[in-house]
Amino acid sequence: MIGVWVTFVILAILNSAFIQKLDTFNTYARGLESIGVIVLTIFAFNKLLAELDNREPTYHPVFWINAGYLFYFAGSMVVFILSNYFLSDNNLLLVAWGIHAILLAIMYCFISLGLWQLRRQ
């Protein structure tokens, strides 16, 4: 798993150096990061559900925190990938980053639910 993330860092650096310069939004690296986090959250859900002694995942803080990350990165992946296209139109840009802000707020709410659930245990 560490090799995958080291490869990602190397690819992100190469992307910034040769493909997408620093004056543009790094859509390839952000999109690849989103895919990586989505895959990791799916693995975490699979592990959580396999190890549960009861079938109530909502009672576990990891469920809520993981759900927040999955929701945010799955929703924001489109904004990350298309962000350079959105730069050509200010109205689209405002809508896209407004959606991003809403997804970020939802992620923080899910993380808060997880931390609150942790406190109740």
Task: Produce a short descriptive summary.
The protein is 82% helix and 0% strand.
In DSSP terms (H or I, runs of 4 or more residues), the helix count works out at 5
Q: What's the alpha carbon Rg, rounded to whole Å?
A: 17 Å
Percentage of residues assigned to helices: over 70%
String of helices and strands: HHHHH
- How many β-strands, per DSSP? 0
Beta-strand percent range: under 5%
Distance between the ends:
31 Å
Quickly give the structural class.
Answer: mainly alpha
Largest sheet: none
Integer tally of domains: 1
Low-confidence stretches: none
Overall geometry: flat
- Can you give the mean pLDDT? 88
Descriptors:
121 residues, mainly alpha, 0% strand, flat, transmembrane helix, membrane
Lay out the secondary structure.
Elements: H1 2-19, H2 27-51, H3 61-81, H4 83-86, H5 90-120
Helix pairs in contact: 1-2, 2-3, 3-5
Write a structural description:
Keywords: Membrane, Transmembrane, Transmembrane helix. The chain crosses the membrane at residues 29-50, 62-86, 92-116. With 121 residues, the protein is mainly α. It has one domain (23-120). It is built from 5 helices and no strands. Helix 2 packs antiparallel against helix 3 (61-81). It is flat, with a radius of gyration of 17 Å.
